[in-house]
Write a structure and sequence with these properties.
The protein is α+β, with helices and mostly antiparallel strands. Helices cover 40% and strands 22% of the residues. It has twelve helices and 16 strands.
Length: 354
């Protein structure tokens, strides 16, 4: 099957944005429709409608923010036209698979859930993100505050960063989950699920025949964001790099990988190697810096320069994940250990190379 037969496109004008549904086909005839959604202003994600055997599966749901839900409905209308007028809407879905518990991938469920009887699935380790969402907001907010203090964020910036961290979290409310992937043996019909923690605790890659859905575990143009495991168990760079290794057998068999953010990957083994190399380079840069003691905030600025808005939090988390990895592997230590021991509560931590 050549590239021309793999994909065709159909454009649709909506709110002066070009919404384009792409169509893919698996080696055994499964039909896949990629629907782009603007999760947040200027930030796009992809959901997938998969038609295979008697299943109509939506993979991820978008954020539910702004025009995201309208764009999903418009995408499904396009799919109906591409399917020779056969109506396919939310009420026609049989299943919804969530690749991982980040709001740009599950936030749309608040809109979708009342409009469908589809069975909703997610990995065990992200189940609480959906079923106990309000509780999780409280827990992660406290963990983020401690992380930011220890990272060396100044008191005058701390409150604004915490507000920024939680500002999008009010978009969602808890929903019922019908099954978890582990509970069904990591497969459902022709779909297989591989647990690949790191970017998110319950991140999975989904396989259908010779096509993979990678969510945010592997992206085509950037290294997926990492945060330290101190913020959420089963995340962190240690888990992520191991998960890249665990994906290798599937990667060698995949013809095509469809990611959570628009671009596809045709050579997944090469992409895995490039991501590994990028993290090794970043770890070496951190080690070079830590000849002298530095905080995570200082390391973040050195790695990513002057950033603004939500990107400040992402840069701090990314730097924190690399510092945590080096600390776990005994490459760095805490320079101000005596201060840490003497004081109650979180203390700004300075790291140095051993």
């Amino acid at each position: 099957m050549n590239d021309e037969s793999i994909v065709r496109t159909m454009g649709h004008r909506m709110d002066q944005l070009e919404l384009t549904v792409q169509t893919f086909e698996t080696s055994s005839g499964g039909r896949i429709y990629q629907i782009p959604l603007e999760a947040f202003p200027g930030f796009w994600t992809s959901v997938y409608l998969v038609l295979v055997e008697d299943l109509r599966v939506l993979i991820d749901s978008g954020s539910g923010y702004g025009n995201s839900n309208d764009q999903l409905e418009a995408g499904l209308s396009q799919v109906s036209r591409l399917e020779s007028g056969k109506a396919i809407g939310l009420s026609d879905l049989t299943h919804i698979f969530i690749t991982h518990g980040h709001i740009d991938h599950f936030g749309g469920l608040s809109y979708i859930r009342p409009r469908t009887e589809a069975l909703l699935g997610i990995h065990e380790l992200d189940r609480r993100n959906l079923t106990h969402y309000e509780e999780r907001l409280v827990v992660v907010g406290r963990q983020m505050e401690r992380f930011l203090v220890e990272a060396g964020v100044s008191p005058d910036r701390l409150e604004s960063l915490l507000d920024l961290y939680l500002i999008t979290k009010g978009l969602f409310h808890s929903v019922r989950v019908d099954f978890t992937y582990e509970a069904i043996g990591m497969h459902l019909g022709p779909f297989e699920f591989l647990h690949v923690p790191g970017h998110c605790a319950g991140q999975v890659v989904i396989r259908l025949h010779d096509v993979l859905f990678s969510g945010d575990h592997v992206l085509a143009d950037i290294t997926p964001h990492q945060a330290p495991e101190s913020l959420s168990l089963s995340t962190g760079l240690e888990h992520y790099l191991q998960s890249l290794d665990n994906l290798e057998p599937w990667a060698n068999q995949a013809r095509l990988t469809l990611t959570g953010h628009k671009l596809l990957i045709k050579d997944l083994p090469a992409r895995l190697e490039a991501i590994r190399a990028a993290h090794v380079e970043r770890l070496n840069l951190v080690l070079e810096m830590l000849v002298e003691p530095h905080t995570i905030a200082e390391i973040s600025r050195a790695l990513f320069g002057e950033v603004h808005g939500y990107t400040v939090l992402l840069a701090l988390e990314e730097a924190g994940a690399h510092v945590e990895y080096l600390y776990q592997h005994g490459r760095i230590g805490i320079e101000n250990l005596a201060e840490l021991e003497a004081r109650d509560g979180p203390v700004v931590i300075k790291y140095c190379r051993l």
